[in-house]
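Hi everyone,

Forwarding the result from last night's run.
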Amino acid sequence: MRRRNNFRKPIKREEPYKINDKIRAREVRLVGDNVEGGVYPTNEALKIAEGLELDLIEISPNANPPVCKVLDYKKFLYEKKKRDKEIKSNAQKTVIKEIRFGPNTDEHDFEFKLKHAEKFLADGAKVKAFVFFRGRQIVFRERGELLLLKLAQRLAEQGDIEQLPKLEGKRMIMFIAPKKKKQ
């Protein structure tokens, strides 16, 4: 009986950029802060980078010739990670709030849920309003659609209809997005 090896092989992570000796192009376009730009043979570009005690990093491998930059590789990765994080933090995240109705929703309940929808839109969230049909209630499709259209009409000042009422299974769904603020 053979013993099973429980140790996993280490996963080799490939570097996102080719650096120094890993660059296989014959000649490269050199850019950098303290380097005279131009097209150089790869071995000469490597000597320039070594003379400055920095790394030669292939930035754009698909260009002809490939573009390489002379700088410290770890510093380059750190700054790229920092830039990516900043871009990600500036990206807007869309929040979707749901409001559920029944086909026989009373006027008071409708007003109550309308106030919630107004608050959600004021906070900048999208509203997903839906009417849920149970059992034989599906025969009241028109009531559900009228209810959602009434909601959209009442929210016309705060938001725009993104998707008109649409029946999906036992649910009739409508999306309302907040209106864009004029700058």
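Strands lie at 27-31, 38-41, 55-60, 67-71, 96-101, 126-132, 159-168, 171-178.

Cheers,
N.
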